[in-house]
Amino acid sequence: MTAQIYYLIASLAGVAALVGLCALLFGREVAKLDTRAAAARMGCEVPGFRPGHSALSADCRSAMLEDARDGSVWLVAARGDGFVTRRLSRRDVKAVSRKGAALALRFSDFTFPAAVIAFHDEDAARDWEMRMGKA
Amino acid sequence: MHFDPTQLATPAFIFLVIAEMLFIRFSGRGRYEVRDMATSLVMGFGSVISGAAFGFIFVRFAHLVMPYRLMTVAWSIPAVAICFVLDDLTYYVWHRSAHRIRWFWAEHVTHHSSQHYNLSTALRQPWGGFLTIGFIFKTPLLLLGFPLGMLALVGGINLVYQFWIHTEVIGKMPRWFEAIMNTPSHHRVHHATNARYLDANYAGVFIVWDKMFGSFVPEDENEKPRYGIVKNLATFNPFKVAFHEFIGIAKDLASARSLREVVGYIFAPPGWSPDGSRETSDSIKQRWAQFRSAQSPAE
């Protein structure tokens, strides 16, 4: 039993040391987007995706895009050095609220409960709020 | 006799992860991300705890099945070799089921939840094996009379083999090796979410099972794999990573309106929904094939 406890403590120390080394070697990289990169990402994830309107958040960490084929609205959001994408349909979005240039979204997704997308200006936020209402 | 290959290999795992990190840092061939790696390692640590705490369930199950065995296989080198090959076949069957049946996927999705593909990804192991009882796939080996210790040994060796194939640092192995064995190239395809690569290369050690059962897809040098799952997780929280699909199943069951829906939500392929409004790997591949044929009608 004692040996097992030592084994677990050593394992935890090993995990901490490896994570520390990783931080030292790679830093804490944060992914950034531009609208072309966001459209390219959607093209990879959704076969046949045709980019329509798009808008980038002020911090370049998320983008909203429209699929010109059917008017569906998609979110591409940075997580770590990668991205996650979500379709913003009525079924997936529980609530939307706007405060100035920021759109606050609540999702019915246990791993992605909420997102705030702060656009450059209020018109963009209002525009995407409207598009989501139609999608 | 107690011989745990995974425990013995742990120092080598640590050494190789460090070597891979250094290589990637200076060559740029691959990616590491701190939070992703931390999640993978914590998942690996948690799976050791979970295995130690709930491993007795498999032992109890084995003792229930073993009285009905056809024969008793004695320890010998040929017996271990045969057991290793047959165990790898049962691994293939379990692994294919783990991608095609949501109940088993709920556990296995943990291993696929990283958008990175490096040696730390190999350690991103599930915590919920005791819930899905995937060990029932070992029943044929118990009925053939292989001793429990032999199954633990070959299972451990199988797991250790699969560690080194989780890397982008190694391109392709020699042709004869690629033809028989599971390799980094074959397994990159397995971890990829590109439509052409979905649901392929389920092998543990021998890629020949995929070739025999029609699930083999070679890595295309013109299409770099994108790793993760179809709907990538927006969290690095290990508890959410471990149990999100179980919670998804529970939520769906709460909204089920018939026995058909209950059965579908548990046993149909991941992404199944009664009205077909969600994406499964089959529907994604179908749309991709349609899109491709529309792009190149002459083909």
Structure description:
The complex is a heterodimer of chains A (135) and B (299). Chain A is built from three helices and seven strands; from the N terminus they run ααβββββββα. With 135 residues, chain A is an alpha+beta fold. The mean pLDDT of chain A is 90. Chain B folds into two domains: 165 residues, no CATH class; 54 residues, no CATH class. Chain B has 14 helices and no strands. The interface between A and B is large, with 35 and 50 residues.
In a nutshell, what does this entry contain?
The complex is a heterodimer of chains A (135) and B (299). With 135 residues, chain A is of the alpha+beta class. Chain A contains three helices and seven strands.
Topology:
The complex is a heterodimer of chains A (135) and B (299).
Chain A: H1 2-26, H2 35-45, E1 51-56, E2 62-67, E3 73-79, E4 82-87, E5 93-99, E6 102-107, E7 114-118, H3 122-134
Antiparallel strand pairs in A: 1-2, 2-3, 3-4, 5-6, 6-7
Chain B: H1 5-27, H2 34-65, H3 77-100, H4 102-112, H5 119-122, H6 129-132, H7 139-144, H8 148-163, H9 175-180, H10 184-191, H11 208-212, H12 238-255, H13 259-267, H14 281-295
Helix pairs in contact in B: 1-8, 3-4, 3-8, 4-12
> Mean pLDDT score of chain A, rounded?
90
* Strand proportion of chain B: under 5%
Q: Give the percentage of residues in beta strands of chain A.
A: 25-35%
**How are the strands of the largest sheet of chain A arranged?**
1-2-3-4
Tally of helical segments of chain B: 14
CATH fold call of the largest domain in chain A: PH-domain like
Order of helices and strands of chain B: HHHHHHHHHHHHHH
What attributes does this structure have?
heterodimer, A: 135 residues, alpha+beta, PH-domain like, 3 helices, B: 299 residues
